Amino acid sequence: MEPPVLWHFPISHFNEKARWALDFKRIPHRRRALGPSYLLRAWWATGRAKLPVLFLNGQAIGDSTRIIEALERYLPEPPLYPKAGSERRRALMLEDFFDENMGHPVRTAVLGPLFIQDPDAVVRIISTGMGEDARRGMRAIFPAFSAFYRFRHGIDPDTIKAAPGIIRAALDRIEAELQPSGYLVGDGFSVADLTAAALFGPVVLPPEWPYPPPGPTPGPLIDLRASIERRPAYQWVIEMYRRHRGASQELAA
């Protein structure tokens, strides 16, 4: 049987959700990093021009939430969904909250200011894990790529200004939801913890983050970190990665 194959964007936090789930469940798999051409390929595979896409048992599954749902059926242990119905509903509610409310502001806060201040940093970050050919190609088409990327993800002066405040509100939510166990739901690690920690990954960049971008940390990200790094929720992200990120299950090419 062919192992699962993950089409992914290495630096993306939504893609990190899928990678973390595969690694947490210790599922050997292959990864294929796709550059800007992923739009057509993902659309062909799933009808949606988005990554990640997981090929599992002959089926192409798009969207990190649907991928985790499929992996829970494929390999129930160790679980990411709590067994108790009320806890499972709570975990899925928090997964949806962080997906919908934190994913885009994190992207905007990390990359938004750089499109004007440091275009080379944008190229370095977005092409992480793709090789020098992808980096050169992205530089060559940067004006068009920049306009398309900002339009696609709603990055403009208003959303750049609002993003840090939304991120702080998400930290408030983590701190409010934490249980005595140190997890967001019940007594153990679940899809809620994985989602919140993964979506903060590009800001925190804990040691276990699998695709650290090359080069110096951009100034806007340093400033953002300095404003939140003493928050309990920021330290919680580091702790979730330390405890549960585990070793990569990616198979050699």
> What is the H-and-E element order?
EHEHEEHHHHHHHHHH
Q: What's the total count of β strands?
A: 4
What top-tier CATH class of the largest domain fits best?
Mainly Alpha
Number of domains: 2
The low-confidence parts are none
Q: Main β-sheet, in a few words?
A: 4 strands, mixed
Which range best describes the helical content: under 10%, 10-25%, 25-40%, 40-55%, 55-70% or over 70%?
Answer: 55-70%
The CATH topology of the largest domain, please? Glutathione S-transferase Yfyf (Class Pi), Chain A, domain 2
In round numbers, the mean pLDDT is 94
Percentage of residues in DSSP E strands? 5-15%
Q: Helical stretch count?
A: 12
Please specify the SSE layout and strand pairing.
Elements lengths: L4 E4 L4 H12 L5 E4 L4 H9 L6 E4 L2 E4 L1 H11 L10 H27 L2 H4 L1 H8 L5 H9 L1 H11 L4 H21 L13 H14 L14 H10 L3 H13 L9
Helix pairs in contact: 1-3, 1-10, 4-9, 4-10, 10-12
